[in-house]
């Protein structure tokens, strides 16, 4: 299976389950309505695990342009392969978002608040401050890449396949600890492609897609992921 196809499948599953849990908690008349932040963070952690396990045996399952960039910086991925990964991640995220829209088709019109509908698809800050929001996304994605490299560089973990579960738990931990300020995108594809889907889909009473904020969940994770990879290389040379 090629890099592009594998990333499409894995990232589509990631967004279907990740945005799906947000829809379950936020949309009116959902049986999981108001289940809370713990449910959302657990849902995202498990979404990462399922998406990654689904294609891990084929090509590593990045599902995130920040991860792809970080692995290219460390030399674990050839830069020439990155376009296929990036394309698959953004396409897969869009497909996953569309599937969430279809799965909750009857709930959009029942939900009055357009902000809740947007939150199903993409992140937004609790307190809007571009500098602070950018820093939060940088820190969160720094931890993500540093944690991924820590897990995957351990020989026993790398050969057992348990690293995918551990990365899912890492995402859970980031969400619980650092997700409050911005909703922890920590993944440019996770935020941008579903935001585009929100813009294009005929969602009843959806409001605008908050393009003013949209650059932060893209730029922040790319910076944070790169810094996390560089920091790991500096602290553990030759890993």
What does this structure look like?
The model has no long low-confidence stretch (mean pLDDT 95). Helix 3 packs antiparallel against helix 4 (82-103). This protein is 69% helix and 0% strand. The chain is built from ten helices and no strands. The protein has helices at 3-26, 37-59, 65-73, 82-103, 114-121, 130-152, 155-160, 163-178, 188-200, 216-235.
Quote the beta fraction: under 5%
Structural class of the secondary elements? mainly alpha
Find the CATH superfamily. Answer: Glycerol uptake facilitator protein
Shape: globular
- Give me the number of helical elements: 10
Poorly predicted residue ranges: none
* CATH C-level category: Mainly Alpha
Tally of distinct domains: 1
What is CATH's topology name?
Glycerol uptake facilitator protein
Count of extended strands: 0
First-last Cα distance:
28 Å
Mean pLDDT: 95
Provide a concise account of the structure shown.
This protein is mainly alpha-helical. Helices cover 69% and strands 0% of the residues. The protein has helices at residues 3-26, 37-59, 65-73, 82-103, 114-121, 130-152, 155-160, 163-178, 188-200, 216-235.
